[in-house]
C-alpha cells in the first residue's frame, strides 16, 4: 500500500497528555471561593483611553481577574436608511457590536462569525443610548465596537466601562460617564451571597448573574441585565444595591483615566473637586 506523503506520520508510541498535568490541578479548579473573599470588593481595574489611532475614540479596560476588553468608536457618519441600532433618524442612531477573539476563552478556537454575541451587543446598545445625547446628532450614526481579548469574568461590565470611555474620548456628548459592575450569586450559600465583580471561576459556578450600568452623577440606572435563579425579589434588591455601590466607587477611576488621556503631555491633570467645591467656586468669565 503506498504511503500518503501529504500527512505527517505520528509516533509509534505515545503517552497521555494527562501525565503532564500537575497532580491535583483539576481539584484546585473545583474548590469553592477563597476564604476571606469580601463580597463587596472590587477587582483591581486598569483603564486607559486613546489606544487606537484609527478610531475616533478608543479605550482599553483590564480587570485583575484576567478580563481584557478593547473598544473603538467610529463616526458620527450619515445613517443609512433602514439601519438598526438605538435612536431614530431625526435624533441620531447608535449601533454597537460585541465580539470575542478566538483566543479569548478556554477551549478550542472558533471562527470569527461564531464569536459575535447579539444578546450582549443589544445590552450594550441600550445602556449606552441612555448615556449618549443622540439628539445632538440628527440623521447621524455612531458605531461602537467592543472586542473581548480575554474572558476572565465580568465581561459585559468591562465592555460598558470601555465603551463609555471611548465615547467620551471621541468627543460624543454624554449625560454622564457610565460605570458598570457585574455580580454573581455564589452557590451553596444559605441566604444567597452575591459577589461583586466575579472572576471566571465564580462566574461559571454562579446560579444567577446581574450586570448594572449607572450614570453616577445623575444617580440614574442606564442598564440592567439579569439571568439565572436569583431567588426572591429581596435577593435581587440586595444585588442591585451592591452593584450601585460598586459603580459609585469605580466612577472616580474611570474619570481620572479619561482626564489623563485628554490632558496634554507635560501638564498635570486638573485636581478632582467635589460637587460642593464646584458649586462654591466662582464661574469663569466668558
C-alpha end-to-end distance: 91 Å
Q: Roughly how many Å is the radius of gyration?
A: 22 Å
Mean model confidence by pLDDT: 81
Tertiary shape: globular
* Class by alpha and beta content: alpha+beta
Strand order of the largest sheet: 1-2-3-6-5-4
Run of helices and strands: HEEEEEHEHEEHEEHH
**Beta strand %:** 25-35%
**Total strands:** 10
Number of contiguous helices = 6
Please summarize the sheet with the most strands. 6 strands, mixed
Specify the helix fraction band.
25-40%
Unreliable spans are 26-33, 281-286
Notes on the structure:
Helix 3 (155-169) packs parallel to helix 5. Strands 1-2-3-6-5-4 form a six-stranded mixed β-sheet. Strands 8-7-9-10 form a four-stranded antiparallel β-sheet, with helices on both faces. It is an alpha+beta fold. The longest helix has 30 residues, at 233-262. Helix content is 27%, strand content 26%. Strand 1 (45-49) and strand 2 form a beta hairpin.
Précis, in short:
The chain is an alpha+beta fold and 286 residues long. The protein has six helices and ten strands, in the order H-E-E-E-E-E-H-E-H-E-E-H-E-E-H-H.
Q: Which tags fit this structure?
A:
six-stranded mixed beta sheet; disordered C terminus; 10 strands; 286 residues; globular; 27% helix
Topology of helices and strands:
Elements: H1 25-29, E1 45-49, E2 57-63, E3 68-78, E4 86-88, E5 92-100, H2 118-131, E6 140-150, H3 155-169, E7 179-185, E8 194-196, H4 200-205, E9 208-215, E10 220-228, H5 233-262, H6 275-280
Parallel strand pairs: 5-6
Antiparallel strand pairs: 1-2, 2-3, 3-6, 4-5, 7-8, 7-9, 9-10
